[in-house]
Amino acid sequence: MGWLKIRDISNITLARRNILVRPPEPPPEMLWSDPSNSIFTGKTKIFNIPFYWNYNELTNPHLAIVGITGSGKSYFIKTFLTRAALVWDSNAFIIDWAGEYREWVKSAGGTVISLGKGSYINLLDTGGMTPNNRIKQIIRTLEILTDINQYPEQKRLTELAIEEAYKKANFKMDSIVQKDSSGTELIAPTLKDVVENLEKTYKRGGYEYPAELQNSIYRLKQYTKTGQDFFAQQSTLDLDKLTNSGLVSLDLSGLPDEIFRALAALSMLQFIKEKMRAAGWKKRKGIQLFVVLDEAWKIAGDENSDAVMIVREGRKYNFSLIVASQNPTDINEAIFSNVGTTFVFKVKFERYLNYIQGTLNFSDFIREEISKLGVGQCAVNMAFTTSANYPSTFLVQKIEGEEPLVEYFLDVGSVLTEEERRDVRVARSVAIEREEMRKRLRMYGLNESQLEEISSLFDKKNKHIDIVSFVILLQRYGLARNKITALLKDFGVADSTIINIFIKADFKVHSATSQDIMDIILEE
């Protein structure tokens, strides 16, 4: 039997204990909403309250989503878009950097458009804008993606050449409607016409700065070469259909590099923004269009990006921008500080936690919880339209998706030191959401057959594979060691642990034949 002991405690000491302070969750009325007009995500960790996302009480309907690879970001996005379509009949346009959403969109009955694989965007399409405004957007895009800002004369020459191309095509520079005398829609010029204008100027001679003119031609020609003219042919995309056809994914994985992908993404954001502006605000239930940017670091991090501009314009046009990244510093602070909702999945690195906490201003308790989150668990920060005397950041115990959340586990116990094994705080495995792992492996060069073999191995071994065996398997597929290192870091594995993994992997395969390698993996 215990003893009850009475002690004298000062008021100051008692006050420090915060006995009557409410735990970090908003009240139920701010979390619960009409299920027919909101998106259910999961239950809160402390009070187990169903959380329904409803933007009506928020500053805007835009979302930022961050977390390490495999923490459940993509799974959440897919669940969220599926429910938005059911609840609000919302459309979704995914700007898919790595082709990760392709198979899911197809299986959901959506449309996949693959740039670099037969589809084109004409960079000079006006998309409901005046040519004058479109020229400004093209130049701003080049400023973000290239160093053209450092060369004012090249920028001026490029701008004049684009204007000349529009005028030769009989476009009225300050008009949205572009038709000839018979009422037929005019055909927009292309970048090839712009390059041709610059080359004619160069051939005529007499220009004061011929080197600047040559460099202007060279800069644009990289987008007009045969086989790389994805933005220099007439568009095969219908913007009206893209934004009003249910679920659509623009697959950018077929484009040659990050610059081409960013150029496509920025152009689509610009076209969509202008289309929504032209349509204006309409009173309707829910969000008309969700636009998803996943791992689009080049355009989500720049202050002049249309992603930042869209977030700052708020809720004017009845559509929502969803920006997701494993590295929160890739997302401009202007987005973090202005989006209505931020979902934070597991984040491990201190500099990332510092950035998120400094931007969202949550407590050290929430920070500590974020670093310990499992797959599918997250913290949510909501920017309410009215001032509140309760926390705006709270924990969700698990995203409850349309399909079961499948986790794969890389067991690290075999590479831990004796001291680490004795420390109960050191994790014995790294959990990664299945589709997120497949996405990352695909980005590092594995083909679909190899992905299926890896999934089959995980399924045979009850979703667990020893991390050393996993590395041996990747080496068997021909993946370079620097790529494997980057992949493990993506999964949140520490540098010291990675060194131990490679040492043990080298020891295991030193005397093994090619056939023995698979035996090693299966025997673990």
Describe this structure as you would to a colleague.
The chain has 22 helices and 14 strands. By secondary structure, it is an alpha/beta fold. The protein folds into three domains: 12-119 and 240-399, 3-Layer(aba) Sandwich (Rossmann fold); 131-221, Helicase, Ruva Protein, domain 3; 407-523, no CATH class. It has an eleven-stranded mixed beta sheet with strand order 2-1-11-10-9-3-8-7-4-6-5. Strands 13-12-14 form a three-stranded mixed beta sheet. α5 packs antiparallel against α6, α6 (152-168) packs across α8 (210-221) and α19 packs antiparallel against α22 (514-523). The protein starts with 10 loop residues before the first helix and ends with a helix.
Q: Could you state the oligomeric state of the chains shown?
A: single chain
User: Mind telling me the C-alpha Rg?
Assistant: 27 Å
Instruction: Using the coordinates above, name the CATH class of the largest domain.
Output: Alpha Beta
CATH homology-level superfamily of the largest domain: P-loop containing nucleotide triphosphate hydrolases
Largest sheet entry: 11 strands, mixed
Helical residues, percent = 40-55%
Q: How many domains is the backbone divided into?
A: 3
Strand composition percent: 5-15%
Question: The CATH topology of the largest domain, please?
Answer: Rossmann fold
* Average predicted confidence as pLDDT: 85
Give the strand line-up of the largest sheet: 2-1-11-10-9-3-8-7-4-6-5
Coarse shape: globular
CATH architecture of the largest domain: 3-Layer(aba) Sandwich
Number of helices: 22
Uncertain segments of ≥5 residues (pLDDT<50)? none
Strand tally is 14
The helix/strand class is alpha/beta
